[in-house]
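INFO worker-7 received task bundle
INFO bundle size: 2
INFO processing item 0
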Amino acid sequence: MIKSIEDVVNKQLCTGCGGCAYIEPERFEMEDTLEYGRRPFLSDSAVKTDGTALKICPGIEISRPRSDDYVNDVKLKHDLYKDWGPIYGVWEGYSNDQSIRFAGSSGGATTALALYCLEQEGMNNVLHTAGRIDIPYLNETVVSTNRKELLMRTGSRYSPASPVEALGIIEQLSSQSVFIGKPCDVAAVDKIRKVNKKIDDNLGVVISFFCAGTPSVKGTLDLLENNKIFNPLSLKDLRFRGNGWPGLWTAKYKNESGENRVKKLTYVESWGFLQKYRQWRCYICPDHTGEFADIAVGDPWYRKQEDDRVGRSLIIGRTKRGAEIIKGAAKAGYLTLESEDESLLSRSQPNLIVTRGALWGRLFALKLGKVETPKFTGFFLFRHWIKDLSWKQKIQSILGTYKRISIKRLKKKVELEKLI
């Protein structure tokens, strides 16, 4: 039984969002680890927990709202909801600011929407993730307040981040803010805002980006070493994507002679290497498209990938408020919306329905193996397992996971050690 945040971590169910460190800062602090991502450690003066952190933990429970909850706001297609969650509109578009569009991971829509909220919607801050300047292979949570700061912090970061731990910044303000995070981060935020009115009031909009999982720091370091960058401290800058679509993994560093050097990999090469380092909880995640956000942004993968071209973004209005902001940004000239088409989602992410179907088989195998599993409600997992998987895929989802119980050491207590 999962009875504490420590149990969540030890059972490898932690997403690394940082929600527990925000809710109980007198007990937990987030730190980087080599193999498991960012994890909560007991602070030096840790006090006894009251259990609040466990209640908002997305690692052990996520409940999707019922489609009936949206009936009064939108004409919701039930089958579409079963597959993709709440949808008030699906668009393909891009930032009208060419610098933002080029620097962003796809079409710069997330940055453009955040900038619109700062300049036109009266929001004063954007809480999000950026690479650390002093240690470029690590991340930090930052607050951006203008275009310059947003632009210098564009691009995906395929490494651990815990932006929810910094919600206190938003709570202390007298104005609204933008929050940007992974689907698991916004799921934690959704839980927190239901028990914290100040956070709920101060969140002007919550934006998520599509996520296929978070690789560990070890993944990044091994990728650097694989490209003959043996001293990570020699790094001057590390971008995982951006500056073209889908963008190149680009490492800038000094060699042993002190000369500036650059290594580049395609998205396929870099992600193909990093994905095997994803934390275990990502393998059993039901939400890769930010269903608990107001707005979710991803890649229109149905298009041909070219690393030197400017991109387009797939933009989903998940709430009525989110759809209003998307349309407002377009009307104000921050975004160009080329098309509105619900089929864009399934055409761009056809593998995600299969992934959700496989999740039912994975959870079934874990229960057979007596391994702790999260509780997911309202995601129609069995329906997808029956309808969307071949018999071979059904069997693989069970047998493959059963093997991973041993490979991933899921029955053993995690031994954590701070990276720095």
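INFO item 0 finished
INFO processing item 1
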Amino acid sequence: GDICGYMSLRGLDDGYENPRFGIYVFSEFRNKNIATNAIQFLFLFCERKQNFRSIDLIVDKDNIKAISLYKPLGFKAKNEDGRNINMIKML
């Protein structure tokens, strides 16, 4: 019953072509597959309930841990903007 972090999904009611995703897991809950499971649930929600074709995110290019989480889940670099990498996952 503890809160272990949060996710955001922007764009569901803003007319985005595809939603923008964000996640944060509190340090004491990391390395327990919480983020991976939450992201996989989010994929199903976006694809099956909302009929989105893709989901994107922005990550600091120095955040190696986050990038190493996103890539195996199917996110690909779309472009870079200064310190950030824009990544997309096709659903």
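INFO item 1 finished
INFO post-check item 1: The beta strands are 5-10, 20-25, 54-60, 76-81, 84-90.
INFO post-check item 1: The longest strand covers residues 54-60.
INFO worker-7 idle
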